[in-house]
Fold:
Amino acid sequence: MKIAAVLMAIVLCVASSYADDPKQMGKDLGAAATDKYGNKDGLKTNLVNPIISNNTPLSTLDGSKSFNAQLVCPSSKKFLEVFIQPGASGDITTIIANEDTNMDGTSDYAYQAPFPVSGVCANGVISCGIGTWSNCNYYKWVADESYRVTLQDAGGIVNVGGCYCVNNSCGSNLVWNNLSMVLKDLGGGVAGAVSAKNAKFTISNVQIDGTSIIYYGQDSGNCSTVTSAYGSSSPDKYYSNFAALNADVSNQVISQSGDPNSYYNLLTAASYNTQSQRDVKQCSMNRVVNVSTIKKSKTAETQITCSAGNNACSTCQQEVFSALGFAVEGYIATEMIVAGQQLVTWWNNGCGAGDPFATGCGPHSTWIAGNYLDYYVCQTGGTMKVTVFAEHKDDVLNEAIDNKCQALESDPKCKLKEETVDSVMTYRNFNPTSVTPLASCQTFSGEVQSFNVCRDWWQKSRTYMCDKGVGYDFTDAQKRLQTITTTTRDNTSSFYYSDLRQDSSGNWITESTNTLLPERDMYGDCEIICKVKSVDTDTQAAAAGNTSQYRQGTQCGTFFYKTCSNGSCPVGAGEQIVKDCQCINEFAEAAAIVQTLRQAGKDMVCSDGTAKPLQ
Structure:
């Protein structure tokens, strides 16, 4: 994102002056971008180096503004410097490597090769007899855990590569004549050894100063980055221990399986969704709780003989309630018939099964001769017939699960995708979230009492993906695509095609579209390039010896193809134009070279030990 923002800023700084002519703006910006970033050197110099080095500013496309755009990483002014000094024999008698191992801007380690170097390799050197190609020993660059480089015995030429001879046995002044190449190869071998120990060291820039090559670097492993809960923060460890990758992959699968938002689950869910047609079905599970009131009633008749006097009243009352045969709870209605007179009296639950005539036990609504009936009966004495009707109420808590997901749960073609329990997401992307809601309580009231009910969950909402058992049918889409592709015509100033599609009723209808096109510029049939040649010295070394030992000369030509800019061929130092700017087609030559290499390879390698004719 940072790099994209930087590039956008570069473009906007230039684009503002072309607001009235977007076509010309596109042409000019394209040409400027090609000139500045269109080759590897331009891309490295103008973009890569500025964003990873604090010494190289980033400039706008037209070069009118420059600014510091380095990513936040530790950077060194001089990460590595390799100095060489050739001797009279052509051998490199002195090689010194200076390093800044901790990227603090100061060199803290130096190494000098303890022997003269007769040949240079991509990852090491060759030391032979002074000025000769005999008694050769082979060494490769290695670095320790602190990134300090040394030369160690390679055990033969098979363990070094890209080697060539530099001393007088192969030619005169080879190091001086090819100083830039020699420095780059030696420095590349040293830098490669350091990177093998710490792949996060990034080379941001390379400069050659006389007989020294200087590398500017950055420790990309300590950049300010967005952290992630998954993956390895040190992927470079697999560079030297690739076997650990399988075990770490398994651990990542286990770790990410429990996270529905992880890349693993997102990818596996996407795979599940695309295998065949599926329906999305939703359902719910609800905990249903209510209170029902159960009523019990009973009627009892009895005759009670009461003695005269106040002391007999309580005895009569107890006998009346004993006639019911069960404890009185809730509200009761009592009907008393005495001497042809009827009295209905209600007592509430506050009296229990004790004395319903006590203070506060309910209304005494009917008077006889100025007294309560019960008092009257008790005072006069005698026998009375009492009919008692009692009603008893009980509240009962009822609980059930209304499971509307049962059919989907038992269907093997349906897979749970998402679940929300009491507004808490417990399942996402076909995987549990490992989050569960806390238990909660609700109050339910009846006619007699209230119940406080606590449960782990009350309501669940689910989404299932159900396999329809059939694959996707793209017949209609192919039919429409064929109609569009077969009828498309470019009329230069307009673009025409017919579209065949279905309406809301499923009927096929044909629509014709003719879109006006802007004026177009004319372009050539090819990219204008040129072919150049540079004369180089070839002293490559292998197990059989070096080039000078089995060829008459060490001079060779190297050909390059370059993109022309403004009709001019960008010729470098020591290069000569073979073919100037034009359309160049040398496919036949390239095919012949490839075929030659293929046949040469078959001639040199017999995998089963039996020579075969070239094919």
Remarks:
- The two ends are 52 Å apart (CA to CA).
